[in-house]
């Protein structure tokens, strides 16, 4: 039974879903990194929010980990490239808390416009300072959105409802989408120059880090009010403080800080500065949404192989997964066969599907073929990290889908470019379930690729099979299955044997020394 650790505070329904789906679950929150390192090795899945930092050290200790599920959107607390290299799927829940976070941004816009926290503190202190708190209307003001994805577009729709004008800077926003959203697509400089309010809704990346730098803050309109409910690190906090102090910036509200938890900051106590402790996603509705979603996604992956909202591998629905699973096994076996027989460094790989296999999502099949091939380099490779490893090695991968149906009702073919030209292997599913090799380097040969096998490439000649049988038999090696194929009588032939134990080197050499042998390889599946 797979085992999952919930390491951040999460709605209790998450644990229940894991149990209902047959996944064992532990909930241990507030672990320090060294405490997490000690226990993470026993888990197949890890469910987190933002407090757990999944670093290289944690991943190295996570020897059984197959999937990390982030109950939320931002995944900057997970070292995704390292997780990918280790074959760990990383998933998030991209929509569960977006309305809630957008609403928090709107709440902070109003809180700034009317100085609500300071007015509240003053009133409750018995001061009744009616003249001190002169606010501004948001109607007809320009809201500058930096980042117009899920949350940014919800903020835009709410702001338009408040009769604000919305200008958006997002290099990936198409003109059509901007029209659909009812926003003006602008450059960052245009946004800085015209916005009365600025809200940020981008992930933290190398491109967005410090996007509101001292230089950019200086380009903003005097009296601008700034809200950040996305990630600390998007704003230069020292420059923000300076802008508030010198009156250029009329107000700023941060839900997120460069260092969290932010228990101290030069910004604290600055007039017109409001802060919340990363509460953007903290509503009961959002927390139920993300907890249910992450538990369902992780359970699906661990129990059925279904992949949803993964950031480092193609999606595979829980409905698709059972259909794709036998093809994944076939794909991996064919890849492994190619990898074990290849002489050269492979630079070009093509994965072709036809018949009913062509109706499936080809991406996971390619991942499995690559995993099979790349296993010659590393035994920790799987369909998550194989595409990354292949890319790293400069391998060009091509996917081809044929609608035609050939001799088999479904066929998967893997072709690689070698110094001897293109070499391909093909297989099908027997009874829609059992992977079966049907063609090897252009020679028809049917075989189950299973356990230990011996591949012999020879020139077809009488008595050859008997000679191989007697070499193995005299050494007490039992042959399980025997598969033959040849191009034409007397021409190139293939012998694939399954054997009950590893064939020792000296026997391999004896077989290699037989007349008419071209190549002998020991294979393992
Ligand atoms: N405060 C909180 O509790 C929460 C914070 N968040 C943060 O909000 C962020 C945004 O979430 P979503 O809208 O769901 O993400 P999303 O992926 O739907 O949208 C992000 C947008 O940023 C844009 N973008 C990327 N690079 C950019 C750049 N250099 N300049 C301008 N725009 C750029 C993208 O094109 C995309 O449209 C998340 O990455 C997360 O960090 C999300 C949920 C809760
Ligand atoms: O889990 C949380 O409270 C933070 C949510 C968040 O920052 C996110 O989803 O990106």
TrEMBL record:
Identify the EC number(s).
1.1.1.95
Class in the EC hierarchy, top level: oxidoreductase
UniProt feature coiled coil, ranges:
none
UniProt keyword terms in alphabetical order? Amino-acid biosynthesis, NAD, Oxidoreductase, Serine biosynthesis
The record's section on SUPFAM superfamilies has: ACT-like, Formate/glycerate dehydrogenase catalytic domain-like, NAD(P)-binding Rossmann-fold domains, Serine metabolism enzymes domain
Query: Which residue intervals define the domain ACT in the entry?
Result: 453-525
Q: Which reaction does it catalyse?
A: (R)-2-hydroxyglutarate + NAD(+) = 2-oxoglutarate + NADH + H(+); (2R)-3-phosphoglycerate + NAD(+) = 3-phosphooxypyruvate + NADH + H(+)
Q: What's the superkingdom here?
A: Bacteria
Biological process (GO) annotations held by this record are: L-serine biosynthetic process
Q: Which InterPro entries match?
A: ACT-like_dom_sf (IPR045865), ACT_dom (IPR002912), ASB_dom_sf (IPR029009), D-2-hydroxyacid_DH (IPR050857), D-isomer_2_OHA_DH_cat_dom (IPR006139), D-isomer_DH_CS (IPR029753), D-isomer_DH_NAD-bd (IPR006140), NAD(P)-bd_dom_sf (IPR036291)
A Pfam family hit = 2-Hacid_dh
Q: Enumerate the GO terms in the molecular function aspect.
A: NAD binding; phosphoglycerate dehydrogenase activity
**Pathway assignment:** Amino-acid biosynthesis; L-serine biosynthesis; L-serine from 3-phospho-D-glycerate: step 1/3
Family note: Belongs to the D-isomer specific 2-hydroxyacid dehydrogenase family.
| Matching PANTHER family | D-ISOMER SPECIFIC 2-HYDROXYACID DEHYDROGENASE FAMILY PROTEIN (AFU_ORTHOLOGUE AFUA_6G10090)
Q: Entry's NCBIfam families? A: PGDH
What is the purpose of this protein?
Catalyzes the reversible oxidation of 3-phospho-D-glycerate to 3-phosphonooxypyruvate, the first step of the phosphorylated L-serine biosynthesis pathway. Also catalyzes the reversible oxidation of 2-hydroxyglutarate to 2-oxoglutarate.
Q: Tell me the protein's name.
A: D-3-phosphoglycerate dehydrogenase
Provide the gene name from the record. Answer: serA
């Amino acid at each position: 039974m797979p085992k999952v650790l919930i390491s951040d505070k999460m709605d209790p329904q998450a644990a229940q879903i894991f149990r209902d789906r047959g996944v064992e679950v532990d909930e241990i929150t507030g672990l320090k990194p060294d405490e997490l390192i000690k226990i993470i090795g026993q888990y197949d899945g890890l469910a987190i929010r933002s407090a757990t930092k999944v670093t290289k050290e944690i991943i190295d200790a996570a020897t059984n980990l197959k999937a990390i599920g982030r109950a939320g959107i931002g995944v900057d607390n997970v070292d995704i490239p390292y997780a990918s290299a280790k074959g760990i799927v990383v998933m998030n829940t991209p929509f569960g808390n977006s309305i809630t976070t957008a609403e928090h941004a709107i709440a902070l816009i109003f809180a700034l416009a009317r100085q609500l926290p300071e007015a509240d503190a003053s009133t409750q202190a018995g001061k009744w300072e009616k003249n001190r708190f002169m606010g501004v209307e948001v109607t007809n003001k320009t809201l500058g959105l930096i980042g117009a994805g899920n949350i940014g577009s919800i903020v835009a729709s709410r702001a338009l409802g408040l009769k604000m004008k919305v200008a958006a800077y997002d290099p990936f926003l198409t003109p059509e989408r901007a029209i659909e959203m009812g926003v003006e697509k602008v450059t960052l400089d245009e946004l800085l120059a015209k916005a009365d309010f600025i809200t940020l809704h981008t992930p933290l990346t190398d491109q967005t880090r410090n996007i509101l730098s001292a230089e950019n803050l200086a380009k903003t309109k005097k009296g601008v009010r700034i809200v950040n409910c996305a990630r600390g690190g998007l704003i230069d906090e020292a420059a923000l403080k300076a802008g508030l102090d010198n009156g250029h910036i009329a107000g700023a509200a941060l839900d997120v800080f460069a260092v969290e938890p932010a228990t101290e900051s030069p910004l604290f106590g600055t007039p017109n500065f409001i802060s919340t402790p990363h509460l953007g996603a903290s509503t009961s509705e959002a927390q139920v949404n993300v907890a249910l979603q992450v538990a369902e996604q992780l359970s699906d992956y661990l129990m059925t192989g279904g992949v949803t909202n993964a950031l480092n591998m193609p999606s595979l629905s829980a409905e698709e997964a059972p259909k794709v699973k036998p093809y994944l096994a076939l794909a991996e076996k064919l890849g492994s066969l190619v990898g074990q027989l290849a002489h050269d460094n492979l630079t070009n790989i093509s994965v072709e599907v036809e018949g009913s296999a062509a109706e499936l999502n080809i991406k996971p099949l390619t991942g499995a073929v690559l995993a099979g091939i790349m296993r010659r380099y590393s035994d920790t490779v799987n369909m998550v990290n194989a595409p990354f490893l292949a890319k790293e090695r400069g391998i060009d991968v091509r996917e081809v889908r044929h609608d035609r149906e050939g001799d088999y009702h479904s066929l998967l073919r893997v072709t690689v470019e070698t110094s001897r030209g293109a070499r391909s292997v093909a297989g099908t599913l027997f009874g829609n379930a059992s992977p079966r090799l049907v063609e090897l380097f252009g020679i028809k040969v049917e075989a189950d690729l299973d356990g230990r096998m011996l591949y012999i490439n020879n020139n077809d000649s009488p008595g050859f099979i008997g000679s191989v049988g007697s070499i193995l038999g005299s050494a007490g090696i039992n042959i399980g299955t025997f598969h033959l194929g040849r191009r034409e009588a007397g021409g190139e032939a293939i012998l694939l044997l399954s054997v009950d134990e590893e064939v020792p080197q000296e026997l391999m050499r004896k077989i290699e020394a037989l007349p008419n042998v071209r190549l002998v390889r020991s294979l393992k599946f």
